[in-house]
Amino acid sequence: MIEEQKDERRRYERYAVRCDCWIEGGDASIFGATADLGLGGVFLRTAVPLDCGQQVDVALSPPGQSSRVLARGIVTRSVRPTRGRRHGVGVEFLDVIDGRDLLSRMLGRRSV
To answer: Cα torsion for 82, 84, 86, 90, to the nearest 10°?
Structure first.
């Protein structure tokens, strides 16, 4: 089941979609499961902080799929741990290079 996440600053809705995610930028290569996902970006819980403004490459692999979503993005949020919460990185998609239809299906939408 997909749960809606709300934040008035976002142009696109975010959903609690879990899939494997790779983020690469600079000297960092991060792997983990997404915390939420939308047409405009992704949030990944990770212990590896990235600097806001850093450009990154993103690959998303939904469970049971052989294809992936490939995107270029920019880090817009870097969350430090607080009580009961882990580090996290928010990435805004600048360009979905491949897999736009797959991203749409992952979010339960008919078109992107």
So the answer is: -80
